[in-house]
Design goal:
51% of the residues lie in helices and 12% in strands. With 300 residues, the chain is of the alpha/beta class. The protein folds into two domains: 161 residues, Rossmann fold; 116 residues, N-(1-d-carboxylethyl)-l-norvaline Dehydrogenase, domain 2.
Length: 300
Amino acid sequence: MTEQIKRVGIIGLGAMGMGIARSLLRGGFEVHACDVRPEVVQQLVADGARAAATPAELAGQVEALLIVVVNAAQTDQVLFGEHGAAAHLAPGAIVIASATVAPEYAETLGTKLLAMGLRFIDAPISGGAAKAASGEMSVMAAGAPDTFAVCATLFDAICAKLYRLGEQPGQGSKVKMINQLLAGVHIAAAAEAMALGLRAGCDPDALYEVISNSAGSSWMFQNRVPHILAGDYRPLSAVNIFVKDLGIVLDYAKKSVFPLPLSATAHQMFMQASAAGFGGEDDSAVVKVFPGITLPAAKV
């Protein structure tokens, strides 16, 4: 049996990163954690993790580094910025990058890490905070077979579905890009439907119940509309995430001269919500761009 990774570093303890870290701890891994918020790291230390003050400090302690940050710029900072991890990882160590990024970035990152004697898995994730916490995410991954082989138990601990999409970095990010196209369009469509329902005088709770059990439903409708009904826009995934992610989709399509009318409209809706000051709120706050409706008040 191939010897498995045992010492794992995780950088980025947001809604999904924290759940992933706790799943790794339950799986028996030695987990080293780093985040720009020391108080969040200490929460994980209480569960049995080991704290690192910087990515560089963490890198010297681990066989694999899992990066769960927001975007390419943050991934670069973690790896190559001041106190970056890449130069301090042992030869042959594995970098698993899970931010949603442009496929071209993932390709370039893989080449750069390989030249440094490191291994790389392009591994975007999906499933939200709940599935990250339960170790049941979906992972869209690309990398070398021998790299996957030594990470088998790691992926068993954090995901229910591991999709191996080839050896070339960027393949995972391409599939995640398409997923985000649908996710963003579905959230925007759900918000539009609820806005029209409110304008028409429908009872919002009854409308949600009926649609959830009818042909017009979607996973995003069922997951995000309860935030609207509760008047709770604390971010699990923020409006600005879809400004970024649909921007990646549209940039890629533009280079291919490929039309994406629904994606473009949804992107403008998220842009409008962000410009109106809702960028840091839950992505369901895109419903706030619609005029002339009274949204449910926050429940006490």
